[in-house]
Amino acid sequence: MKCPSCRGGMDKGTTTLPYELGRDKLIVVRDVPALVCAQCGEVFIESPILKKVESLLDAVEKSVMTFGFLEYREAA
Ligand SMILES: [Zn+2]
Predict the structure, then answer these.
(1) Distance between CA 74 and CA 66 in Å, rounded?
(2) CATH number for the domain harbouring residue 18
(3) Is residue 58 part of a domain?
């Protein structure tokens, strides 16, 4: 696909997504598969992948963890 911002080519890569959950949790999800624009650096994440990230975050939201890093995993 083409970059939505500059129409440049996008390469497969990974990105890191920081999430604030509520007022007191900060979770950073690493190694999330993404398409990264070679020209402007815009990052695009496909919706099935975002859904998996959200399900990982759901589990964290119910735990006592307030700050930390998660690795993205296929089997979420
Ligand atoms: Zn771009």
Answers:
(1) 23
(2) 3.10.20
(3) yes
pLDDT tens per residue, range 35-68: 999 999 999 999 999 999 999 999 888 888 899 9
In a domain, 4, yes or no: no
Instruction: Give the Å distance between the CA of 23 and the centre of ligand 1.
Output: 33
Distance 10 CA to ligand 1 centre (A): 8
Q: What pTM, to 2 d.p., does this model score?
A: 0.83
Average pLDDT, the chain: 92
Structural domain range at position 25: 10-71
Rg (CA), the chain: 14
Domain assignment present for 61: yes
Question: Number of folded domains in the chain?
Answer: 1
Find the 9 Cα to ligand 1 centroid distance in Å: 7
42 Cα: distance to centroid of ligand 1 (angstroms): 5
Residue with tokens 């979420």: 76
Across the strands, what pairs with 41? none
